């Protein structure tokens, strides 16, 4: 076990980033045109970095498995993006955003990185407005803001319920400008299957053309992993079905440490599971918690009657409803952080108060918002003596203007009108705070290999606050990596093109080809999905929202056994040198089966509860997470040594010099 050097600059927290930018090496514009960078992933982190690096003069090669960069999973983000602009005049500041993020992550993130994130956040909004992103605006013309969980200010900028899509389109337009100039070469429908290291440095990748099946070699002076998170290790998650861990896992197996894999976010406002037929889950934006109130019946008999269809939620009197978040956390109410809201929903449903047929759902109710907004509208329109129904209709119009596409999406999926009956929600796997370990420069433990956005671990600790994923992705891509990668590349100005006919490329391609051929030639009887679903059930049941030592020990053993069975009995139809989606899935699930074991191992070693990592053995009398700062205030970074179960732990101690570390409370 060793201690990691995060390369945090010296000096006062507020000056670290500015001083660091002044001190790092730069690359002459004339030399940038001779340097190549590979970008794996074209979501907000990868797309923004690719566009910015190309604008600076570097030659960028982008890779995505989708048919267009604009189909990256960033497009699915709904609610908004945080920035410390303080447009509302409600007391926000860089420090407040920094503090909220550290506290929201339960004091398990790196102080210097989080402050930098807060510091550059305002620049992101200016950048996106300049690109034409249609953020919502308030009556005076300024950009509007709304609140998200875990904070007491309104700092979330949004574009209805399509914020990720609009930000990605802005990013994609910036990429297209560089594609048109010839500074970005876009490889769509390509998947990275290995990292190539030459002379101890990342110098390229092996990729598969998913249309033709061809195995390709691509070289560069640096490789950036911006491939998102690994939530699909649970099979059912809010991630796109194609989202995977492969790029991150390949660099891990080549020497990049994997940090805090057990820090995975359970999002409280997901449409509940409806049956075994499902292949993914759908998120309802956290923004809905601004105006929706979460409740379950107070009486067990009422909950049972609702589940059996004998009682409608609209028939239940106000005094018979338990607004449990408002009851337990009066200061934050329905806007507590995601991990807190998720555990509270699970506790109510485990106690028998769930409201759908499976007993795993709570209500998200907008009836109070209809009345509140309706009365406000009636006043502004000077309506005299409006009826309650008129007020409700006016209020519904306001809610529709704010959240209409989300309500429409819910109705299409559930076949219930959320304007007439409360939405049903339940927690589900969403975002992964763990990921590839990076230092302050976003460089992994492999020289020349960088990781940005959700693919790295750096900014969110044990729990991500809502609307901070888009912030981190764009901060890394637009305003951090372009500086720090230049510091690394300054020593490569005389290197010249990296050849792909070297023994290192030969060996990497050979290993990739042999693995894919093994899938094709395997005489198994079970589909890839069969194994993925079984892995997901183990993960959810024993490594999910609530964990304990016996279950985690069982999970480690069961995942290892499942992996052995997978390699013996998986059946992959089709051939290697052709379009073969089942082959793609098989390679991804093989990586999930390795990650899953390390995930459980990490959760087992961390004998505390913090953020999204909740160990049943470590909780307060009130059922809240109980940290162990004396023994676990560190980043757990795992080194691959051949088997996930044999991974070696390295620690990066977390030192807080600018905030007081204390028990997290939202009451």
UniProtKB/TrEMBL annotation:
Signal peptide: none annotated. The keyword Glycoprotein does not apply. GO terms for molecular function: electron transfer activity; flavin adenine dinucleotide binding; succinate dehydrogenase (quinone) activity. It catalyses: a quinone + succinate = fumarate + a quinol. GO terms for cellular component: plasma membrane. Keywords: Cell membrane, Electron transport, FAD, Flavoprotein, Membrane, Oxidoreductase, Transport. Residues 532-666 form the Fumarate reductase/succinate dehydrogenase flavoprotein-like C-terminal domain. The active site is at 338 (proton acceptor). It is found in: Cell membrane. Its cofactor is FAD. Pfam families: FAD_binding_2 (PF00890), Succ_DH_flav_C (PF02910). One of its GO terms (biological process) is anaerobic respiration. It comes from the Bacteria. Residues 36-470 form the FAD-dependent oxidoreductase 2 FAD-binding domain. Its EC number is 1.3.5.1. It is a peripheral membrane protein. Its main location: membrane. Belongs to the FAD-dependent oxidoreductase 2 family. FRD/SDH subfamily. This is succinate dehydrogenase. It comes from Antarcticibacterium arcticum.
